[in-house]
């Protein structure tokens, strides 16, 4: 049994990960910020299935909130925490031309700095005789950059770099890997038509299954020779190559 902390675990991709890994008889620690109702419902659903689950409220842009959450986790599970899945993320549109300090800082604090601080905690308390893991949920766009969602993209690109550097520094006792989702769920500013067009424009011409993220995580957790890697769950979106300079015969 693993003890797994999932940030942003009350909704969307985080919720799916919590449910799927809970079914593997793991102890699930669910972080949330504003999703109180969703977090409590998920905790109750897991407990009804005889899955040990805890919930923790924290604003990951505030260091004191992170420290308080980690203190509560230690009180609940001691030093049993062995896996952190950094899923919490802020995703807001901006560009290099209209960037603001506040928006850039918010993306960097939540999407990049918080995973680093949480990983630092695991490094401090990990036990050397077990398989410890950090899995960062990134984005396929880090492999195919474009100028949209500038602050978000910079934070995720940074997290991919951090994943590789922490894999180097934390070896051999902590493995660090990344998952790069593509068009799995619609963004808050996408219509159904826009999302379907994006998913159908991938090389595989289909929407990736949200459960494939958990399948990839299960692979990483069960394959103890893998570290410093990224797996794209995106129906090949990062391979899209029909750019305007391509002329089809």
Describe this structure in words.
This protein has 249 residues and is of the alpha/beta class. It has one domain: Rossmann fold (3-Layer(aba) Sandwich). The chain has seven helices and seven strands, in the order βαβαβαβαβαβααβ. It has helices at residues 12-22, 36-48, 63-77, 101-125, 150-170, 192-200, 211-222, and strands at 3-6, 27-32, 53-57, 83-86, 132-137, 174-181, 230-233. Strands 3-2-1-4-5-6-7 form a seven-stranded parallel beta sheet, sandwiched between helices. Helix 4 (101-125) runs parallel beside helix 5. It starts with a strand and ends in a 16-residue tail after the last strand. 42% of the residues are buried.
- How far is it from the N-terminal to the C-terminal residue, by CA? 55 Å
Q: What is the beta-strand fraction? A: 5-15%
Q: CATH superfamily assignment?
A: NAD(P)-binding Rossmann-like Domain
Please give the CATH class.
Answer: Alpha Beta
Number of helices: 7
Largest sheet: 7 strands, parallel
The residue ranges in which pLDDT falls below 50 over 5 or more consecutive positions are none
Going by CATH, the architecture would be 3-Layer(aba) Sandwich
Oligomer: single chain
Structurally, the number of domains stands at 1
Percent of residues in helices: 40-55%
Shape: globular
| Radius of gyration over all CA atoms, rounded | 18 Å
Mean pLDDT: 94
Total DSSP E strands: 7
CATH fold descriptor: Rossmann fold
Query: What is the string of SSEs from the N terminus onward?
Result: EHEHEHEHEHEHHE
